[in-house]
Specification:
Largest sheet: 7 strands, mixed
Strand content: 5-15%
Bound molecules: adenosine-5'-triphosphate, magnesium ion
Radius of gyration: 25 Å
Strand order of the largest sheet: 3-4-5-2-1-8-9
Number of strands: 13
Helix content: 40-55%
CATH architecture of the largest domain: Orthogonal Bundle
Shape: elongated
CATH class of the largest domain: Mainly Alpha
Oligomer: single chain
Number of domains: 2
Length: about 400
Amino acid sequence: MINNKKISKFAISIVKDIQNKNFQAYLVGGCVRDLLCGIEPKDFDIATNATPEQIRKIFKASRIIGKRFKLVHIFNRAELIEVATFRSGEDSSNEGSLVKDQAGKILRDNIWGTLEEDTYRRDFTVNALYYCPITQKIEDHNNGMKHIHERVIVSIGDPQKRFAEDPVRSLRAIRFSNKLNFKIDTDIKHAIYDKGSLLLNISNARLFDEFCKIFLNGMAEKNFAKLCTFGLNKYLIGTNPEKNEFTSNLMIEALRNTDRRISNDQSVTPGFLVAALLWPQLIEISNQKGEINLRKFFRSMDRVLRRQQKITAIPRKFHTYIKDIWVLQLKLQSRIGKQPYKTLKHPRFRAAYDFLLIRERASGHRNTLGDWWTNFQKNDDQIKKSLITKLAEENQESNKKFGFSEELR
Ligand code: ATP
Ligand code: MG
């Protein structure tokens, strides 16, 4: 049923090596699910009854990671495979410890268990399938196969309780339902409505990871739409799409652009998306009677970033990038003398120009500044010069066309 040729040889060799030491080992989780759905797995995870220390001893190139959730990473030159020890839920009295907070959120989960126990701590039935590539058999204790055939995301256990334990499961349910084109089971829908607000208790670092998984996987637009239906968008992005039409259009255009880039195998960075998604907040603060107040603009950049930081962390390395894209939106406006040449040479020009096009599309204003820059970039020096002179000859007002007026209304 599963074609082993679609599985990483390295992952299969690890399973064999573990089994040869008389432990159990299976491929598990997303890779089994994806293979059964005809999707190419992103990565291959392994589950075993050997402890992290025992695994560590079998593989030279390996390392134990994590505290909340201990795992072993095994590497070769090209790949990294994650090996997790079977865990049991509660009521166990062996070496590890399951620690919960007042809301029932799991803080630490290192109680070892059996394969069957391990299935119950996984989130959804379709994520709880264990495949042995040697016997080619699948272990299925929660009707995962049935739900794959029925194309539905079903929680393992009561979703109200499971989502309180880990509120990120709400986001995961939405992401998987779009990725696999599966329905979300009704009980899960209720749990998302009831427990979604617990996402407030999740660390901004973990939410940044989820932000990337949900918006940089090629399905950003669909995921955003579903997040909005459930009212979860605010736990990932501080900008309210309902603020006005421009804001909602801009957010959708930016997400759509990200999806398009991924489907064209172009690079994507969370920095660009964050810059785009937060832009409406920045211009709202800088808005003074329909014009950008430069002083406020420059002063508010850090404030807008800080506001978002409270929701999702934004790694330091992206801050300058984001601010560059913002400041370049102002620079792209001025096309006098030597300025356009300088702007064109800026290392972030391309990203800033892409963002300009997105802003124009969102404001329904076309054939203006963006087109001018499209022309300016692709033409030779002679024409570049003439583009600037022509602009200077026309009145200065048209120079400002597609100012910020459309966005600042
Ligand atoms: P993908 O890698 O495509 O995002 P995945 O299912 O592999 O999907 P991972 O986050 O890599 O997702 O997790 C691997 C497996 O670990 C999942 O399939 C699931 O069984 C389990 N798992 C991960 N996160 C959770 C969670 N928050 N709660 C319960 N189980 C989880
Ligand atoms: Mg995975």
